[in-house]
């Protein structure tokens, strides 16, 4: 199955865009190779509002959000996960609106670090955020003319959630499913087995339209998610093939697999390969000299 990405997107920085009935999108001006044109925040409702993913602590983004809110009360601030491009502005918005914050929980890695191992992604996490309300998987929050169901979708981050706007077919997929790119799965915070299971979880639903954390909408989410699964399985096969050809380290594999990728992104690519190798080791297909890590030695299990 061919996976086709949609990179056509107008972020409309400094303004807000209606993307569905009673849903506005505000894109933060924090463009990067990892955030595309910036982080999408969403405002849900007509009278008393909910805000999904407040975004980075950026003065310009805060100003635009307040313009979109237009003085209306905000009762809830939902946070999909605690990466620094999604959650930090929650504190300032809460101080200005009095809204309660809701999320699966504070930051935590997908697995414990082994002795002496350093989490190279520490700088990407908002370790200060703790929600007022801890959302359970499948929890439903009723608001003023809207209801949002929280769906735990770990993989990109251990505390990642998607939010379904009940009875609309609309799902806010955050960084789990995006139309412009695959999601980054970077251990120890991301986990490939969790990511694949979360795709299966969403495939069991009948949502018709995804609004992601970066880029434009996913208009045929079922077909797109099947393509994401096929893409990951293809990458897994390539890694196994590199091991058959004699590669034993992640840098060796990255140099071949990502030879057309900007070398500045090879570090992130290495973490993606590590996520696959963690999964392959756990399934007994590959062996590692120790706990899977960037500098471990890998072999096919004989």
What's this model, at a glance?
The protein is α/β, with parallel strands linked by helices and 302 residues long. It contains six helices and 14 strands. α3 packs antiparallel against α4 and α5 packs across α6.
Which features characterize this protein?
302 residues; alpha/beta; Metallo-beta-lactamase, Chain A; Arc Repressor Mutant, subunit A; seven-stranded mixed β-sheet; five-stranded mixed β-sheet; 6 helices; 14 strands; 26% helix; 19% strand; elongated
What this model shows, in words?
InterPro entries: LACTB2_WH, Metallo-B-lactamas, RibonucZ/Hydroxyglut_hydro, Sec-metab_biosynth-thioest, WH-like_DNA-bd_sf. This is MBL fold metallo-hydrolase. Residues 38-214 form the Metallo-beta-lactamase domain. Pfam families: Lactamase_B, WHD_BLACT. There is one protein chain. This protein is an alpha/beta fold and 302 residues long. It folds into two domains: 17-228, Ribonuclease Z/Hydroxyacylglutathione hydrolase-like (Metallo-beta-lactamase, Chain A), CATH 3.60.15; 239-300, Winged helix-like DNA-binding domain superfamily/Winged helix DNA-binding domain (Arc Repressor Mutant, subunit A), CATH 1.10.10.10. It has six helices and 14 strands. A seven-stranded mixed β-sheet has the order 1-2-3-4-5-6-7, with helices on one face. The chain has a five-stranded mixed β-sheet with strand order 8-9-10-11-12, with no helix packed on it. Strands 13-14 form a two-stranded antiparallel sheet. α3 (192-203) packs antiparallel against α4 (221-244) and α5 (250-257) packs across α6 (266-282). The longest helix has 24 residues, at 221-244. The protein is elongated, with a radius of gyration of 19 Å. The mean pLDDT is 94.
């Amino acid at each position: 199955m061919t996976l086709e990405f949609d990179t056509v997107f107008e972020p409309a920085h400094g303004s807000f865009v209606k993307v569905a009935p009673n849903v506005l999108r505000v894109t933060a001006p924090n463009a990067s190779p990892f955030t595309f044109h910036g982080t999408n925040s969403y405002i849900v409702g007509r009278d008393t509002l909910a805000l999904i993913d407040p975004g980075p602590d950026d003065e310009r983004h805060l100003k635009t959000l307040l313009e979109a809110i237009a003085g209306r009360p905000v009762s809830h601030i939902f946070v999909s996960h605690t990466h620094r491009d999604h959650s930090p502005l929650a504190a300032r918005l809460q101080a200005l609106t009095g809204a309660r914050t809701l999320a699966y929980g504070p930051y935590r890695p997908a697995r414990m670090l082994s002795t002496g191992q350093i989490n190279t992604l520490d700088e990407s996490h908002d370790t200060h955020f703790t929600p007022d309300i801890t959302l359970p998987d499948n929890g439903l929050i009723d608001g003023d003319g809207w209801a949002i169901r929280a769906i735990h979708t770990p993989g990109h981050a251990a505390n990642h959630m998607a939010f379904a706007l009940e009875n609309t077919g609309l799902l806010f997929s955050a960084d789990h499913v995006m139309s412009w790119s695959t999601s980054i799965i970077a251990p120890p915070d991301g986990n490939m087995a969790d990511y694949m299971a979360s795709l299966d979880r969403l495939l069991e639903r009948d949502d018709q339209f995804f609004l992601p954390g970066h880029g434009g909408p996913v208009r045929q989410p079922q077909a797109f998610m099947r393509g994401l699964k096929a893409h990951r399985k293809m990458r897994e096969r390539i890694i196994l093939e590199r091991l058959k050809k004699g590669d034993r380290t992640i840098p060796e594999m990255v140099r071949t697999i990502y030879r057309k990728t900007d070398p500045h992104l090879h570090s992130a690519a290495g973490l993606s390969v590590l996520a696959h190798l963690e999964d392959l080791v756990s399934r007994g297909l590959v062996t590692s000299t120790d706990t899977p890590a960037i500098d471990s030695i890998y072999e096919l299990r004989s």
